[in-house]
Structure formats: structure tokens, C-alpha cells
Amino acid sequence: MKQLTRRFFLVCICLSGLFLGNKALASSESDSVDFHLLSLEYRLYTEELSVDERNTLLMQKATLFHQSNRLSEAIETLLRGNLYGGNDSIRSAVYTRLAYYNYLLKDYKKTQSYLLENAYYFEGTYLANQNLYLEILTHLQLQEWEEAKEKFNRFAALYTLNYEDARYFETHPLPRLKDSEKAVSISHYLPGIGQWYAGYPGKALVSGGIQAAFVGFGLYNFYTGYFFSGAFTGIGLFYTFYTGGARHAGYLAEQTNAKRLTEFNEPLSRIIVESVQQKSIKKGK
């Protein structure tokens, strides 16, 4: 069976090589990526590899998926590795990539999970602290302010940030976030008040005004004897805008939160990323 698998991969690789050898026939850059992916898969299936060699090849394959913006496949590839045996540096690199790819997918809970595993397995070594920057960014996205502040202070000391950047949490107040459920709830009591709470007084006045107008239209039709028009036009439209306005208030609260989080997180994230990049450049010299 293994011999048959080896032959199958050889045929596929040879065919891919023939097509890629002729530039006129190469349809896109993805052809080259697929060829390299197939080559790595061939080695994984046919060679007798140690744990470290297998994990290294899987990381190479995951990198190709990442470069092709196929992050889910990159994660699936890394999970085929051995996370509990082999060289500590290689294992830690696998955990780091799993955390990073999940961060790019905005799955911050999984990011945090892999970071915690890395910190647990390599506690007391430099490997436990090498992802400090990613831990801070993840805490920020999860709105875990105290944890983010504590680790940022460690980061500031480790990367010798300037005085102004190091005091970011002291000089920038934490974002005051809105409760989207509260915005919906209070809109049911008084139309428009939810939008006002969410930070959009103009939209609150428009929403409340429209709903008041439909109520007035319905009552006027009842008063003049047009009960059908009053019920199905005035009151019907009021109910539609009433329920829709409440949902819209919740959406606006989430928009306000997103804006305030971005205003707080982006400058801090920029400080962290630029500091890591500068240190990497200095190491490379």
C-alpha cells in the first residue's frame, strides 16, 4: 500500500512539474504553491521521519497555506503534528503558529488557548515568554484590560519602550463600552432612546419621530372612522419600526463599541508590533 501511495505521488508531482516547467501553461502563481504542497505531502507519506522532521515539514506546508490565505488549512496541517514530543523549540513554534493563525481568523479564544498551552508546557524557559506580544494583542481583543496592562508592563521593560509609550495605559482611559442588550431593552420602553444611549442622538430623534408619526396617523384614522387604515397602516407600520428600531439600537451600540475599541487598541497594537519588528531587525544585524 505504501509503495502504491509513493507511486501515486510521484506521478502527480511529475505531471505538475511538466506543466509548471512550461511558463506558457502555468495559469497562476497558485500552481507553484500546489506543486510545493504536493511535494511536501509526498515526503510526509513516504519518508521515515522523526517527530521533529515531521513537525518541520508540516510547518513548511502550513506556511504555504498561510501565504495563499488558506488559514483554516494551515491550522489543520499543524494539528497533524506531534505537539507532545520532540524538540521544545519546534513544538513551541507549532503552538505559536496555531495561535497566530487563529488570531488572524479572529478566533481569539482559540488563540488564547494555544498561548496558554505554550506557556504551560515551557514554563520557566524563554519559550514561555516569546509570545508576549501576541498575548497582549489577544487580551485587548477579548477586552481583558487588567491582563493586557500587566503583560504590557512586562513587555515595556523587556523591549525598553520610551517613557510615553510605556505609560500608555496610564495616559489613555479604557474605552467606555455600551451594552447592546440594554440598548434594545430600553428602546422597547421609549422608541429612540436606545439609539441615543448608543451614541447616535440624531438617529434617535429620527427613529422616535417616525414612530410617533405612525402612531399619530393611526389614531387620526381611528378618530375619523377609518379603522382599517388606522390598524393596518398606522399601527402596523409603527410596530414594524418599533421592533426594527430596537434591533437597530443594539446594532448601533455594537458599532460604537467597535469604534471605541479600535481607537484604544490600534495605537497600542502599533507600538507593540513596531517594537517587535525593530528588535528583530537589530537581531538580524
TrEMBL record:
Signal peptide: 1-26
Keyword Signal carried by entry: yes
Keywords: Signal
Keyword Signal: yes
Name the record gives this protein: Tetratricopeptide repeat protein
Organism, as annotated: Shiella aurantiaca
